[in-house]
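Worked example

This section walks through a single chain of length 121. The input is the sequence exactly as stored; nothing has been trimmed or padded.
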Amino acid sequence: MAGNKKLMDRRKTRIRRTLKKNNVAGRPRLSVFRSSKNIYAQVIDDNNGVTVAAASSLEADLRKSLKTGADVDAATTIGKLVAERAVKAGVKDVVFDRGPYIFHGRVKALADAARENGLSF
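Given that input, the structure is written out below as tokens.
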């Protein structure tokens, strides 16, 4: 178990380092965290250290409408919601930070929904 955590931390660090190195325009970062029961997304401005927009499957109005927070439908809803909030805050171009997760399943569904609703990455 501890070995798996170390591998995930190394993968996350490697991805963030690559994102920061290639992000010369200073675009905000769309960061994704998925647990076994929920999914979270936030748009972070690393230059100012501020979260511009955020959404999660734990929000009260979403908990009532979603069957569970751990499926592709929930990820799609969160992607749509975070994109709408980011566009409302004036952010259209972001860098996608998938963290230690493979771009597949819930992470991919969130990314596709965010793209369809106004974010470009």
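What to look for: Residues 87 and 108 are 20 Å apart (CA to CA).
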